Structures are given as structure tokens and as C-alpha cells.
Amino acid sequence: MMSRRRFLACSLFLPALAWLAAWRPARGHGAGPALVAMRGTARGERVWFEPAGLWIPQGATVRFVNEDAVNVHTATAFHPDLHGRERRIPAGAPPWTSELLLPGEHYDVVLDQPGVYDYYCLPHAAHGMVGRIVVGTPEDAQWTHESYYQSTRTNGMPGTFPELNGVLATRSRHASG
Ligand SMILES: [Cu+2]
């Protein structure tokens, strides 16, 4: 006979499974946006973007989702128009930033120009919460090689970006679906 405790656990577990089943297809098959989670430890000692390095095809949408229950976060492009940072997105690409996202909230951005987009979290700049999105490949006609592509360190901020080649290497996962 099922114990009361086990029954309770199941009744919580099943809705979670149903939610996952509904959510998953949008993640892996190119039907929905590429996801970057904003995460943190329960007491907020550590915060990060996951994955820190993401490859997407030109014109794809990236969705930043705050999956951290105890912190607000932003996704903010490195650009002089946004808090005077160095430019670390392709020349001519418009700067972008989310609002402060509460737990569970999300922000979508469409990235049309091939190249490397480095971004950070405004409230956690001092904690090294940074990430990198690579759009397209160096074979694209509009791709330009900019000096910051080879650098994994920011000017005046802790945190390290993933290597460009490492992010490019993940794109086969998308091709295979
Ligand atoms: Cu943050």
C-alpha cells in the first residue's frame, strides 16, 4: 500500500514531469529560442550563465531565463552605449539589454549579425557573471575578425569568456538536432 508520504511525493512529481515533457521539444529541435539560464546557489554566493558559451545560427533568438530563485539578473551586451563598457559585439550590431529579471522572468533577443557577442549581468558585474554567444561562423560573408574575439578576459571586470573555438565546436550538436 502506498504510504501517505510517497503519495505526496508522487503528486508533486507528476506535474513536474508533465511540465518538462511540454517544455523539452522547444529546447532541442530548433523550433524555439536557444536558452541561456541565469543561475545561482541557494544563498547567492555564486551566480552564472548556463551555458556560458552558446552557438546559434544567424538570425536566431536567444532567450535568457532567470532560473535563480533568490536573485535578479540582467543580460547586458558589452557596448559603450550601455554603462560605458568596451564594445564586445560586432560593429554595427545594435546594443541590447534586458530589464532586471525577477525569478522566472525571461528576455528574448534576436541576433542578426554574425560574430561574437559578449555580455554580462549588470548587478553581478563584480562577481564575474559573463557569457558569450557566437552567431554564425567565420565562413560567413559578413563575419569580421575583431581583436576581442581572441580575448577571454574583460577590461576591468572579473570573469572569463569561453574560447571562441570552443563555442564554435558545439555547433555540431545543433546540426544533429
Ligand atoms: Cu546576475
Automatic annotation (TrEMBL):
Which keywords does UniProt give here? Copper, Electron transport, Metal-binding, Periplasm, Signal, Transport
Q: Which Pfam families match?
A: Copper-bind
Q: Where is the Blue (type 1) copper domain?
A: 41-135
Quote the protein name from its UniProt record: Plastocyanin/azurin family copper-binding protein
Q: Which InterPro entries is this protein grouped with?
A: BlueCu_1, BlueCu_1_BS, Cupredoxin
Tell me the PROSITE patterns matching this sequence.
Answer: COPPER_BLUE (PS00196)
Q: Which top-rank group of organisms is this from?
A: Bacteria
Its source organism is Yanghanlia caeni
The places in or outside the cell where this protein is found are: Periplasm
What Gene3D superfamilies does UniProt report for this protein, alphabetically? Cupredoxins - blue copper proteins (2.60.40.420)
Signal peptide, first to last residue: 1-21
